[in-house]
């Protein structure tokens, strides 16, 4: 994460989630599947935020999705921590909004707006450093200076915090 944040300070660096599955393991002469493909591929996913509604037209939709991925308009979700409803992260100034992956010249008055699921806790990271932590479901803080901003969300399980959601950066240069 630190390397990603550092690279993002110089250029746009979108990330996507992926699972590297190679099947079962051989324990002596007994074959063993330690974790099924179905289980593995249902853990970590990339949620894509397209600029327009998908239409069902394969060529058109493919262009929308690839453009969104290329521009970092997505976030990563660990499904083992649960589904994420009521989630969002953006920068806002009056009626203007910038989403994950967007790049804009910073100016005074831009706020970072977040919405996280109830019971979760979030960190806002700027240039690789945590600048804000909260357990509130709504976040509205000033982007006090230029930088690359992203959010990490964790779900509580007993005393543990389980990594849940990682956004791509919003670039305020």
Question: What distinguishing features does this structure have?
Answer:
single chain, 173 residues, mainly beta, Immunoglobulin-like, four-stranded antiparallel β-sheet, 14 strands, globular
Q: What is the topological layout?
A:
Layout lengths: L1 H7 L16 E3 L2 E3 L4 H4 L3 E5 L9 H13 L3 E5 L9 E6 L2 E4 L3 E2 L6 E5 L4 E7 L2 E6 L3 E5 L4 E11 L2 E8 L2 E3 L1
Parallel strand pairs: 7-14
Antiparallel strand pairs: 1-2, 3-4, 4-13, 5-6, 5-8, 8-11, 9-10, 9-12, 12-13, 12-14
Question: Can you tell me about this structure?
Answer:
This protein is mainly beta and 173 residues long. It has one domain: Sandwich (Immunoglobulin-like). The protein contains three helices and 14 strands. The strands form three sheets. Strands 3, 4, 7, 9, 10, 12, 13 and 14 form an eight-stranded mixed β-sheet that branches. A hairpin with a 2-residue loop joins strand 1 and strand 2. The radius of gyration is 18 Å and the shape is globular. The protein starts with a helix and ends with a strand.
Largest sheet: 8 strands, mixed
Number of strands: 14
Number of helices: 3
Low-confidence stretches: none
Summarize the structure.
The chain contains three helices and 14 strands. The chain is mainly beta.
